[in-house]
Write a structure and sequence with these properties.
The structure is a homodimer of 144-residue chains. Chain A is of the alpha/beta class and 144 residues long. The first copy, chain A, contains five helices and three strands.
């Protein structure tokens, strides 16, 4: 069985209401000056921000974010539930990562790895870990 | 395009000779005593060790291993090449991780994430990062 995004979407939907929004990549200029990088980032983040649920707890996935173990992440999600935070909006950044402004606006930054992965793989990792977290929090066995 | 294991296998084979070996999962007893865990681990590791290339540099993927950035991992692989280490054997552990003995036998332990992922996803992450590392070391642009 291919353990892809579709599979974990299906599995997670047993536990939560899941919406996945995608913004179109901004074309990245070949040679980047600092101004061009910031401009590109702002354009991309504006589109991301428009899709972000302002009523949700916004969690940015960022290399500089906090690293959790699977059990730690599950516990964190349980804490959110316990304190009445029912909507989580995870944001995967663009090619250049988040601007300082975006990081300030997010409620929390987490890091899945020190390594950089394509955003499709980051999405897969996030979905699998959320699925695992709900399994852990319900004391259900996890079979891959 | 589905960025799966097959895709990265194909891409990596442009750069290196790649062999993937898999050992069959040992059935895990329902209730585990410490002795049963160690027994299970030993049986699994024996099978893994049989498939391990003793002439290769053995790198175990372990939660307790060293974390690298993508650039850091690329640099490490370059260092191996520069010092004449041409064969790398990455080992993804079983359900229970590696025994102390296995960790001692490996030349190096690296950690892709503090999170626990199914081994199929770990394989995907490893292949993608190796592909990325060869791209970085050749100064080639990386398009996902």
């Amino acid at each position: 069985m291919e353990l892809g995004v579709k599979e974990y979407e299906k599995r997670l939907k047993k536990y939560i209401k899941l919406d996945i929004e995608e913004v179109k990549d901004e074309p990245l200029p070949k040679r980047l000056s600092r101004e061009e990088i910031l401009k590109h980032q702002r354009t991309e983040e504006k589109k991301i921000w428009e899709k972000t649920d302002k009523n949700a707890h916004i969690i940015g996935l960022d290399l500089a974010g906090k690293q959790y173990s699977s059990e730690g992440l599950a516990k964190k999600i349980q804490e959110f539930e316990n304190s009445g935070i029912s909507k989580l909006n995870f944001v995967i950044g663009g090619t250049l990562g988040f601007s300082a402004e975006f990081k300030e606006s997010a409620h929390m930054l987490i890091s899945l790895s020190k390594l950089t992965f394509p955003h499709q793989i980051v999405r897969l990792l996030l979905l699998e870990q959320l699925f695992r977290a709900y399994k852990i929090n319900r004391n259900e066995p996890y079979h891959t």
